[in-house]
Amino acid sequence: MSDHAIIIADTTGHITRWNSAAETLFGYPASRALGESLDLIVPEELRDAHWRGFFRAMANPEIRDLAADLPVRCADGTTRHVAGRLLVLSDGLGTAIGAMAIFTATGSTGIRPFG
After folding, report:
1. Which residues belong to the signal peptide in this entry (predicted)?
2. How many domains does the chain have?
3. 82 - beta bridge partners?
4. Is the dihedral of CA 4, 22, 98, 109 positive or negative?
5. Which one of 7, 14, 45, 72 is separated from 29 by 20 to 30 angstroms, measured CA to CA?
6. What confidence tens digit (pLDDT) does each residue in 8-46 have?
């Protein structure tokens, strides 16, 4: 999995895990990303929609397949569409404990929900 960028956020949307592949793919070192809001990588024009969906998922976690080419704001200021999968993390009782995104640097899902 080391070639996959893995980002984990808590239920408030703050980054708690940022692996070395995320550093490479998005350009932010872990020291800059950890503890930051997901706004770090969510393009500004998509933030309202992102947070509505994020908090809806935290309130009512479901197992769904959410793979798509997602727009991500990189450290150099560019927005790239990157193949990714979004997952709500929940405990054994079904309570949300956070979210995880897994991205790959190559390939495409063929789905671009945000253009």
Report:
1. none
2. 1
3. 70
4. negative
5. 45
6. 999 999 999 999 999 999 999 999 999 999 999 999 999
Place of tokens 């945000």: 114
DSSP state for residue 35 in the 8-state scheme:
T
Q: Is residue 113 part of a domain?
A: no
Task: Decide if 16 contacts 6 (C-beta within 8 A).
Answer: no
Token pair for residue 75?
A: 């450290």
Distances (CA, A) of 41 to 36, 68, 93: 10, 16, 30
Q: Could you tell me where the DSSP H helices lie in the chain?
A: 20-26, 30-33, 47-59
DSSP character at residue 16: E
**Cα–Cα separations (whole angstroms), residue 18 to 23, 54, 56, 90:** 7, 18, 23, 19
CA distance 63 to 47: 23
Cα dihedral across residues 107, 86, 39, 103: positive or negative: negative
pTM: 0.94
- Give the CATH number for residue 11: 3.30.450.20
